[in-house]
Amino acid sequence: RQSVFNSTTAFKILSAIFPNETIDFRESFKALYLNRANHIIGCLTISEGGSCSTAVDIKLILQGALLSNAACIILAHNHPSGNLTPSKNDINMTHKISKAADIMEIKVVDHIILTSEGYFSFADEGVSML
User: Model's pTM, two decimal places?
Assistant: First the structure.
């Protein structure tokens, strides 16, 4: 089992999961599920959208967490534009997911935005997730 203790490790793992042929063309949203020891216990593709957005269903994220008995979640999506700055919508959505997960005592530990060139970590940059 792979463990995730920082954003660099999460980015390396997520880079292998996001398809190289679409990361710059189609936005996708994924959830990485971790147990209490930060071992990866699952990954779920929540949605695949168009060139500039994708729908995110909070119920699907939490369903995956509950079915895998996850203690923590790392949210991830790509920006085909190459811009790593989170949008207002990205921040608002992260807050909603974190609040819903918090009710079930599941912690959203990070939200990673990926491009083919790099990443942005909410946790590293001090962007509040609650």
Answer: 0.96
- Return the residue matching tokens 């990205």: 90
Which is it for strands 107-114 and 28-34: parallel, antiparallel or unpaired?
unpaired
Q: In what order do the strands lie in the sheet with 107-114?
A: 40-48, 28-34, 72-78, 107-114, 119-121
Residue 54 phi, psi (nearest 5): -155, 145
User: How far apart are the C-alpha atoms of 96 and 91, rounded to whole Å?
Assistant: 9
Q: What is the mean pLDDT of residues 40-62?
A: 95
Question: pLDDT tens, 95-123?
Answer: 999 999 999 999 999 999 999 999 999 99
